[in-house]
Amino acid sequence: MWPGFICCLFAGLALATLPGSENVEYTYTVRGRTFASLHEVSDSYSGILYKAILRIQPKSDNKWIGQIRDPKYSQVHSMLSEGWHTHIPDGEVSWKPIEFSLKPFEVILSNGVITDLVIDQEVSNWESNMIKGIMSQFQLDLKGSRRIDSEMGSSETGIPSVFKTMEETVTGNTETLYEINELPEYLLQSEEYDYLKDRQGRVMEVVKHKNFSNYVELPSYAFGFGDLEYEIPASNKMGAFFVRSSFTRAILSGNLDKNTVHNSYTVNKIVSSPTLTDKKKGMVVSTMNVTLESFGAPKDTIPEVQNPLHVGNLVYSYERPYARSSQVHKKSPYQHRQQFDIDLERRLRASNMGKDKTLTKDKEMRKRLRRSIEQFGGSMMEEGDLSQSEENYQNRKPELNQAPESPLLPYTMAYKGVSIKKGVDVVKTVQKIAMEIGDDLQNPPKVADENTLNKFTILTSLIRVMSEEELTQAAVRLYTQSVGDAKSFAWQAFRDAVAESGTGPALLTIQNWLLTKKISSSEASQIIYAMWQSTRQPTEDYMRSSFEFIKKPEILREWPLNSTAVLSYTDLVRRVYVNKRNSEKEFPVRSFGHFRTEKGKNFVAEEVIPYLSQKLQEAISDADTYQIHTYIRAIGNIGHPLIFRAFEPYLEGKKQASQFQRLLMIMSMDKVSDLLSAGFFNHRKWIPEALSYTTAA
């Protein structure tokens, strides 16, 4: 099953700048395709073709009126002998209309750069994003007004030939490398450039390469990449199994101030290993080809936007999957920049490895970027506000009993921009799939033939869009105390899928099952471990609810649940609040903002560590060897220097402990040792502070 990044459909594409004269209309044909394939294994491709007509009527140098007409798409699933770029005649596919409102929109520009879109408030958010994808073709910074490199090469004609900018398109606000060249006259005589015969002015070729590793905004959904050392999820490269690139070539005529695009072509490609062990790669490729068909006096005037809403820059806006409607919503450009600063600092340290001259140059580049941001967009945050790093394009963090608004996933936004729950009875569907799995498991040899594992994956994905109330309803329908029959297997499949879903409603549901004895202690140990390993949105409410759960008497007196719960939870605490790098890459911070908050870090220092220290002291007083070992390991799992406070009295002989217990305390410092050696903590700050603690926790 392909991951969520397939949803990255409309790439940051081609470009154009139009003359500011009124009473002129430019008409473009828009054609694109998005295909997925295991291209190193087979010539089989699946995806869509899409096409439309784009009308643009410039009102001034800083304002255009646009309208998309006759948008259509066609699904494709066939063998393409020449790969993803194989020509597919219109007559060989079945075109269907895309349900666009066809309402006009306004484009606001500054110095030739698109800074805002104005869209009718009745337009759906998914349509707004498609408009952004198409209008990203016209994002052009020919003069390098937002450039971030100190030097800008120029050709003999005075055209700035090579430079870097920070550029906003639908795929994000990223560093973009520009290469601009004037095409020689002899080259224009070839058949390839017949469409330029009626041009005015010189002809320029613009080539752009996006650098997704350098960004201010990077809409994406990523989970489970905590082991990546330096790479950032959704960037150019992630380990040896994910590569992302974007290339654009556009042909323009005119000059730097007044120019018109005649043809543009973009390829946005993602190459990935379907699994971590696969040597053969798969690919998702999205292309767009925009061609100027005509320009001249318009047959009719595109009307002004009714009920206008300034939606902000061209960067993709996440859906509101559980809202009553999928109407467009406002997004202010450049509202926050902190995550860019944090990620850039880390990349500089990783890439330069002590090369002071290069580091100084890159820091100067960052300063120029900040000045560019301050010049062109929105309100900026103070330097000291790095702890409040939620990006303006992100979704709000979920309530504990409600399903998270996870963007770019099929079941949360692929049903016309809203959750699949708008068109499907999710409780009934979950019950049906669980029962099918139960039937399959009664005949194990046929599991592969019945695609049982795929059914379980679908079941887990559906559970991720369910609230606590919906999970409770499904549990009532599926719960059984019988053993060995289809219904018991269905219940087990549902139970395990809830644990794998990793949501707040799943946490509350499993807690209820444990307290009401719907699952045994031995079952619960495995379920609890799987649940906290699969956690996707560890909000402050989620972490506190989990903490209160492991303190309950019903949990503390059940073995092995009492040990599994505290060990699994403290491991999660480290991954969320202590290990900064893991927290940024393991959880979908580009979708919801950071989960490693100041409030959360204080919670660990002021409540979690003192509680565990107290439980350790009680276990030693009771001579409960098993619990002593459990709480020593649990404290060590947290990996924060403040755990020295818990161990210091025993290691220095101020409190009684056996030699083996002291040895186990030393061994349990492996996590904090790893994080200290990796530079996650300031030795001068934390070691003295931790060791100066003299009062029993």
Quick tags:
697 residues; 15 strands; 22% strand; disordered N terminus; alpha+beta
Could you characterize the architecture of this molecule?
This protein has 22 helices and 15 strands. The chain has helices at residues 125-135, 185-188, 338-352, 356-376, 410-413, 426-441, 452-463, 468-478, 486-501, 504-515, 521-533, 540-550, 553-556, 561-578, 580-586, 589-592, 598-621, 625-638, 643-651, 659-667, 670-677, 683-691; strands at residues 25-37, 44-60, 63-79, 96-97, 105-110, 113-120, 153-154, 160-169, 172-182, 202-217, 237-238, 242-254, 259-272, 282-296, 308-312. The protein has a 15-stranded antiparallel sheet that branches. α7 (452-463) packs across α9 (486-501) and α9 (486-501) packs parallel to α11. The two termini are 49 Å apart. Mean pLDDT is 82; it is low at 1-16, 332-361, 375-391 and 686-697.
Give the N-terminus to C-terminus distance in angstroms. 49 Å
Largest sheet: 15 strands, antiparallel
**Residue share in helices?**
25-40%
> What's the gyration radius in Å?
29 Å
Strand content: 15-25%
- What best-fitting shape do the alpha-carbon axes yield? elongated
**Quaternary structure state of the chains depicted:** single chain
Q: Overall pLDDT, averaged?
A: 82
Identify low-pLDDT runs. 1-16, 332-361, 375-391, 686-697
- From the helix content, strand content and strand pairing, which structural class follows? alpha+beta
Number of strands: 15
Total helical elements: 22
